[in-house]
# Entry
Amino acid sequence: MTIERSLYFCWRDFVGESSDAPSNLDGHCEGKFSFLARSGLGVLLKLSSPVTAKDHSILSNLEQTASASELDRAGIGDTASSQHVLGPVIGKRGLLMLSWLAPVALVIIWEIAAKAGWVSPQVLPAPSKVLNTAIKLATTGTLLGDLRTSLLRAATGFALGGNVGFALGVLVGFSRIAEAAIDRSVQMIRAIPFLALLPLVIVWLGVGEAEKIFLVALGVTFPIYINTTLGIRQVDPKLIELGRIQGLGPFELIRRIVLPGALPSILTGVRYALATAWLALVVAETIGAESGIGFLAMDAREFLRTDVIVLTIAIYALIGVAADAIARLLERRLLAWHPNYGASR
# Structure
């Protein structure tokens, strides 16, 4: 049996149409197409019977792709095997506990040092005192109100900046002309610190909600823009070629090949953008704010309330952990086909 015929039956076996495939191809199929199952290519392409001259061309491209990805497959195999070795020993619950070991140990040491008098309460109050302050502020409604205001500002700015960054990233990723016209200006603006822009933004928008949302949106735009552009540019050209051979139009290529291939990079940009959103919000809420977590911290500074200041820092840290957990959940759901995501994470 020729290699083209063998590859053809392997592919049909992969997509579930192998009723007429010879029975002696199992080992060969496993060697040639195991990487296709892991990469999710089976979702994108599907051959039809019988084998024609067009199928021979497709199978030739598939064989080249198999050869080119041999090193990648070896690396993926090593990673997967190491995960299988360590996974049963520790387990998901053990890994989760391990990730919280350092923060919990730090809090315990901090509490002991504060109670023993090694650290001045005016410099760094004990975690128990910070917790009592949080309960008091939550009981009076001050903390929850400020937290709700900050979350609303961050969510609104993230939505606006994320859409702008994604749109610009797609445009620049697909068009060299758009890159020449847009990218240099975007990079120049990205290099300007928030604090340098703040006086001008206040002149333009005042010290109301628009100024704070604008700064958050501005900070969110750049990570998503850069990672979207990078993800689109890094899609394997061989996958695009195979899609064109299968007769996919431009929009189908984008929807079924380019965007899924760029998705890991885009979601990485989302994770960076979530952290940047809170950084921008802290800067925005330090000037002219009347509510929000940043305002709570600045107001506590005026009265030397270090317990409240530490509380706001802890809130920012917990929000960051929650936002990163949401981003990881999106990665597991949207990238279930990817060997480095999905059920393995």
Observations:
- Residues 151 and 194 are 19 Å apart (CA to CA).
